[in-house]
From TrEMBL:
InterPro entries: Glyco_trans_1, Glyco_trans_4-like_N, Glycosyltransferase_grp1. Gene3D superfamilies: Glycogen Phosphorylase B. This is Glycosyltransferase subfamily 4-like N-terminal domain-containing protein. One of its GO terms (molecular function) is glycosyltransferase activity. Transmembrane segments: none annotated. It comes from marine metagenome. The lineage of its organism: unclassified sequences, metagenomes, ecological metagenomes.
Length: 290
């Protein structure tokens, strides 16, 4: 079976996080089962943000046993990446089924157009708060306008989906506002233990961490609650139980890094925090393994 998997980003852009890795793992496991699985995505490159698109990345390559086809992003609005060539790639390849991840994405819109044109099943996943994301109410005016404009597109994608794969009951309840329960399947996220190996032998030694640590790993974005974490550290820093602990904050800049460093300095908590920007996948896994 020819399976098309659509996602806003793929390797090497590991900073994009969860849905990127989900697409990669689905493609890898589908290929192992004897299918021809291809990830259709943008040319987002590895960087300390989600703004660097690289025309020099191959349009078509196999990375870590995953077949990836990229197309260049003409322009972006926040995390809405416009890469029209993806439509031509998918139409030309004629997949038997499409699985798109990230319902608010341009890639899901394109996938829906192709599925309708080819009359093939469309599977959708979101892996997040489709209607409950904090930016929907608390984001800047441009973000909120964009999200409002996306509403007809979201209905278009969901209405044309044959099945909706959700990770838990929370996400299922979100989609019940758009469609019947019969369309939704709960498929919990797994973990590929084979990918938990790392070349970073001693994480604490590499980064000169002398004490036990509490780890925060994620995008440097206000919606991830980093501001709340920093305020908590400020309030707790002088407690006896905090004397032999530090906080390690690892991630990439999604608009909050400058403010994060300002808060750390203002709260005088530099000695309680170690910030690691733009970490490699090896270092991320090593931090988890400590």
């Amino acid at each position: 079976m020819k399976i098309a998997i659509a996602c806003p980003a793929s390797l090497p852009a590991t900073q994009f996080g969860g849905i990127m890795f989900l697409a990669i793992e689905i493609a890898r496991e589908s290929t192992k089962m004897g299918n021809e699985a291809i990830v259709y995505t943008t040319d987002l490159d590895f960087a300390n943000n989600a703004k660097v698109f690289n025309r020099d990345l191959p349009d078509d390559e196999i990375v870590e046993d995953v077949h990836i086809k990229r197309s260049h992003v003409w322009f972006k609005i926040n995390l809405f990446f416009i890469n029209p060539k993806m439509y031509l790639q998918m139409m030309r390849d004629s997949p038997d089924i499409i699985h798109t991840i990230g319902v608010r994405s341009f890639q899901s819109f394109v996938s829906t157009l192709v599925a309708r044109k080819k009359n093939i099943p469309l599977i959708i996943s979101d892996q997040g708060g489709l209607t409950t994301h904090p930016d929907l109410k608390n984001g800047g005016i441009l973000k909120r306008i964009l999200y409002k404009m996306q509403t007809p597109m979201i209905h278009f994608v969901i209405n044309n989906a044959a099945k909706i794969s959700v990770a838990n009951e929370y996400e299922k309840n979100i989609f019940l506002n758009f469609c019947s329960e019969s369309k939704i399947e709960v498929i919990r996220n797994g973990i590929n233990l084979g990918k938990m190996k790392t070349q970073t032998v001693d994480f604490k030694k590499k980064f000169n961490i002398q004490k036990p640590f509490i780890l925060f790993l994620g995008r440097f974005s206000r919606v991830k609650g980093i501001d709340v974490l920093l305020k908590a550290i400020k309030n707790l820093k002088n407690r006896p139980e905090m004397e032999d602990l530090i906080f390690v904050i690892m991630g990439v800049d999604f608009g909050f890094q400058k403010e994060m460093f300002r808060m750390i300095k203002e709260f005088k908590i530099e000695n309680k925090i170690k910030v690691l920007t733009n970490p490699s996948r090896d270092d991320v896994i090593a931090a988890y393994r400590e």
